[in-house]
Amino acid sequence: MQFLPTPLSGAFTIELEKRGDDRGFFARYFCEDEFAQAGLETRFKQINTSLSARAGTLRGMHYQLPPSAEVKVVRCIRGSLWDVIVDLRPQSPSFGKWFGAELNAENRTMMYVPRGFAHGFITLSDDAEALYLVSDTYDPKSERGMRYDDPWHGIVWPREPVEVSDKDRNWPLFDKDFHGIDLIGKAFA
Description:
By secondary structure, the chain is mainly beta.
């Protein structure tokens, strides 16, 4: 695996190193030793999947507060999506900044989302399916979200969404108290 730093502190895209022949190829999706050598999370409690039927479906921007804050490793296994993260750690040099990358079934690129980041994506194809390694269990009491179109982070999406859940459409605009930024900051100080 190749761990490629993004402009956001602690976040990476991960490219598979394929070993192949005329039959196809083999590659590791996860290797505890390689993740540990890169200083990344090595313990995952869940593997989740989501399927979005229509191109232009937007999911996000989601995260959990400590002690349930999650690391995610996201890969698109069918179709194509544009994955985006926002750094919510106030002490980070990249606080409030965002980064996006296309993940698709052909490039097999993955996004490593550290604790203290909001995460979301918009599908670029019909029937886009994402697979997530997640380091903590879903906790509805710790769940938070922020609007995908919030001017605070200013994400420039590659297309207009055609489907957004009521929940995602109605997250409040950025608010330090609601979003638990102080809790995130204390947990990662």
